[in-house]
Amino acid sequence: MLFEDPLVAGRLVRRYQRFFAEAELDDGRLVVAHCPNPGSMKGCTEDGARVWLRPCAGAGRRLSWSWELAEVDGGFVVVNTTRANRVVAEALASGAIAELAGYDRVTAEPAGGEGTRFDFLLERTTPGDSPRRCWLEVKSATMDTGGGVTAFPDSVTMRGTRHLEELAARARRGSRAALLFCASRSDTQVVRPADEIDEIYGDALRRAVRAGVEVLAYRCDISTLGITLGTRVSVDLGCMAA
């Protein structure tokens, strides 16, 4: 996934009201950018941190900049959480996710019932070994907890818990269901549930796995030019007691 426009470097002045970020560009301009990330962004919003913004002036836009990347400890973190779905969509189309290969139709944002929408529905319309359907949810994980371990979520997510419950319900009914953590920081070696942030989500994730939901994690390859899905990394679910 290539960025639509060349990114511009600067320094973070502050993030405020969740969806706004003030930054000083390298040329000295002080600008306000949209922050397309509803989470706490714990560890990614230090004042003075190196940031990369995308110019996006156009009809219907209140702000002329969007915050795409942060630099933390010499590596990149993807700030824009909407990028994860596009990165995964491209990886699915190219067959880059071996565990999800064998499907020839991919539908984005299919209705999951009771007002829930999943990120993808994978379907096989020709004979093959893969199950005919796979419901897939994608989560962008960015919170560093040390030692190459990235955790999700970085703030309480009732919506994320609801998705897990819906995936588990499908798995119990015999459908294939999967959760893919898109590790959106370049130093990730392991992804785990952030029980210290949202214990309910962590418990729901472990229940979903016991119900048959598959959990995968892939680290992104990130540069100022674009983002691609890279290497599979480990998932540490913590306690799996019944």
User: How much β-strand is present in the residues?
Assistant: 35-45%
Question: What strand order characterises the main sheet?
Answer: 3-2-1-4-5-6
Give the integer mean of the pLDDT values: 92
What structural category do the secondary elements indicate? Answer: alpha+beta
Strand and helix order: EEEEEEHEEEEEEEHEEHEEE
User: In the residues, how many domains can be counted?
Assistant: 2
Number of helices: 3
Helix content: 10-25%
CATH architecture of the largest domain: 3-Layer(aba) Sandwich
CATH level 3 topology of the largest domain: Trna Endonuclease, Chain: A, domain 1
Low-confidence stretches: none
Q: In whole angstroms, how far apart are the ends?
A: 40 Å
How is this structure best described in words?
The protein is built from three helices and 18 strands. With 242 residues, it is of the alpha+beta class. It has two domains: 8-78, OB fold (Dihydrolipoamide Acetyltransferase, E2P), CATH 2.40.50; 83-235, Trna Endonuclease, Chain: A, domain 1, CATH 3.40.1350. Strand 5 (65-72) and strand 6 (75-78) form a beta hairpin. Helix 2 (158-172) packs parallel to helix 3.
Record keyword descriptors for this entry.
single chain; 242 residues; alpha+beta; OB fold (Dihydrolipoamide Acetyltransferase, E2P); Trna Endonuclease, Chain: A, domain 1; 2 domains; six-stranded antiparallel sheet; six-stranded mixed sheet; 17% helix; 39% strand
In short:
This protein is α+β, with helices and mostly antiparallel strands. The protein has three helices and 18 strands.
